[in-house]
C-alpha cells in the first residue's frame, strides 16, 4: 500500500513536470514571436532637435536640418520646441535669412537616435561666416527626486564673465554661495543639480554683488531640467542682462 502511494506520487510529479515544460515552451515561443514582431530591421527612434538663437547680428532666420525646416522666422532669444529628425552622424544644418537669399552659415552635427539636441546659433565676428552653429546634447531625464538641474549658456559679451545665484526664499544675496562662479562669455555650465525649493535667480558680473539680472521667484518642486540663455540687453557698455529659460524636462 505504501509503495503504491509512492508510485502514484511519482507519476503525478512526472505529469506536472511534463505540463510545466509544455507551458514554458509555449511561453518561450510566444515571447520569441512578440520579439520578432517588434524588432523591425532598420528601425531607430528619431532624434529630437530644437533651435536656440543667441545671435545679435543675424536677421530673422530659418533653420533646416537635413532639409527639414525646424525653425522659421526666429530671432535672438528664441528657444523653439523640439521637432523630430532622422538620426544622422553628419546631419547638415543650414541657416538662412527668413526673407530668403544665400545660406548664412552651413554646418554639420551628430544627431543621436532617441536623444535631444539643441542647434545653438551664436556670433563669431569672423567674415564671411559671422555665425557659429554648435549642436548641444540636452539632458532628457528628470533631475533626481527633490532636485532640479539647470544649464547656463553665457552669451553676454558686454557683461563678460558672470556668477549665478539661486537664492532661497528668506535668504540674501550676500549670504548665498553662487551656483556658478566665473562663467566666461561663450561658455556653458551645466547641468548643475541643486535642492528644489522656491528661489530667485540673480546674475552678477564675476566677483561682484551688483545684480545684472534678478528673476521673479521660481518655484521648483523637483525633477525640473532647464537651460538658461544669458544675453546682453544691448551692445553698449554696462548693460543689464536678459535671461531666456527653456524647459528641457518638465
What would the principal axes of the Cα set say about the shape?
globular
C-alpha Rg (nearest Å): 28 Å
Strand content: over 45%
Total strands: 17
CATH topology of the largest domain: Immunoglobulin-like
> Can you identify the CATH class of the largest domain?
Mainly Beta
* SSE topology string: HEEEEEEEEEEEEEEEEE
Distance between the termini: 72 Å
Uncertain runs: 1-39
Q: Average the pLDDT over all residues and give the rounded result.
A: 87
Count up the domains: 2
Could you give a short account of the major beta sheet?
5 strands, antiparallel
The residue fraction in helices comes out at: 10-25%
In CATH, the architecture of the largest domain is Sandwich
Number of helices: 1
Structural category: mainly beta
Description:
- With 250 residues, this protein is mainly beta.
- Helices cover 15% and strands 46% of the residues.
- It has one helix and 17 strands.
- The strands form four sheets. Strands 10, 11, 13, 14 and 15 form a five-stranded antiparallel beta sheet that branches.
- 27% of the residues are buried.
Quick summary of this structure?
The protein is mainly beta. It is 15% helix and 46% strand. It has two domains: 47-138, Sandwich (Immunoglobulin-like); 147-249, Immunoglobulin-like, CATH 2.60.40.
